Amino acid sequence: MRCLPGILLCAALSLPAARPALAGDVTLMSRDGAVEIGGHLLDFDGGTYRLDTIYGPLAVNADAVTCKGAACPGAEARVARFALSGTPVLGAVAMPALIEGFAAAGGMTVERAADGRRGLFRLRDPDDGTLRAEIALTTGSTGEGFADLLTGGADIAMADRAILPEEVAHGREAGLGDLSASHRRRLIALDAIVPVVAPDTRMGDPGRGLTLETLRGLLTGEIVDWSRIGGAEAPVTPHLPRPGAGLGRTPEARLLEGQAPVPSARQHADAAAVSGAVAADPMGVGLTRLSALGGAVQVPLAAGCGTRLLASRQGIKTGDYPFVVPLFLYLGAPQLPSLAGAFLDYLATPAAQIAMRRAGFADLMREEIPLARQGDRLALAIAEAAPGSGLAELQRMMSVLRGAVRLTETLRPGPETDEALSQSGIEALARALEAGTFDGHTLILAGFADGGDGPDADRALARKDAEAVRDALRAAATAADFGRVRLEVAAFGALLPLACTGGLPEDRLPEAMAHRLNRRVEIWLR
């Protein structure tokens, strides 16, 4: 037997012993007739034959062969079927567009239909109308997507947050294994929760921003009139999505710190409805998604020392804005039909990511941020520099980073969502290293800390984090040639903060949030 690329997956498979065997032997022949393999048909998922052969279990790409024998599956069995369920943030607009784009890239046509609450997308061969795939799409909420995953109602859950520990436990109980494992999760785009007002707001000047404490006061009813914060004499009207409408559990909890919104807050079906209502209400303030901003005006968050945090595409990618919403797909089974695997691979392509950007999300394509565009951060670094050695440390940092550009991958230790984003960043960098993207260059892994433990301790913590990232990259990029690219560790302690830790407490971010933003490992390329 010969193994030809794209025809046979020649590694032995670990097949569940409990799976019932399909009766009968078959012979698979490559379409050019050069390769033939026979064996007992164990399974067929619409895209891959799994055979028990004299060579052991083998997987064979169905698109590359023809099947002969009474046990060969019929045309209906060769249709790849899989179902997605979960957050409408993805399911309402983005996912249908991605399915259409995937079909077009594969030379297939798409027919839309409905089956109760589910939308159906039938992908056909344009020449003979052969049905290649049927994709079911159900929108509800992230929690409902995970519930469908557990009950077998979906193969893929669409999520606007990282999976919760209790959902991981339920997955194990249902026999799905560890749903939090990195190979069961695909990050496909990013969004952010932002505070918004109307263009003709009674707040006054939105550009001056709001402290987090003030924003919480407006939304929880502690501040009931705009005049309390320097605006016009007018009552504040909070606008929020209804409970479960999809702001994202973790970011919303961070923003409100578990406080309940004022009971009189006007509730809307989704983030887009919030944006529309706020845009038409000069006395309104609300929380929405950047992707659904519409005609509303985003209000910056005051981060102390005169700095402002505004959600932008690059700020979301780097995580320098605190309320990032990751958009994940979680896989209910490690193995899906081969066409479903091709669809997941398509989501990482530039064409799919451009479609996500056009839909208002922050895409995952790597961007470069020159040192010359770090003006605000450098100004804050100078303002926050420690007496004595502070200037010397700044000069050292500038000498290391001069001539380099910052990449949008930024890695942070922290809660589940940050860990998931950091792991996705490691995987993206590892793929680039293996592809030779950085050959002939130096990747500077620049560690930063929060500044709470003194210069020496801060530098030690920053170096420890940067070395951990270096080790993780080396472990993940097993096929990379590290003789062609240099990984350089640099530790800058509390230099270049994103959030100010000085000034009045009421004018800056909460200490824990500032700590989470400031402690990070940035990736610079030279």
Automatic annotation (TrEMBL):
Extract the signal peptide range: 1-23
Q: Where do the PBP domain residues begin and end?
A: 135-349
Ranges in a coiled coil: none
- Supply the alphabetized keyword list: Signal
Protein name listed in UniProt: Substrate-binding domain-containing protein
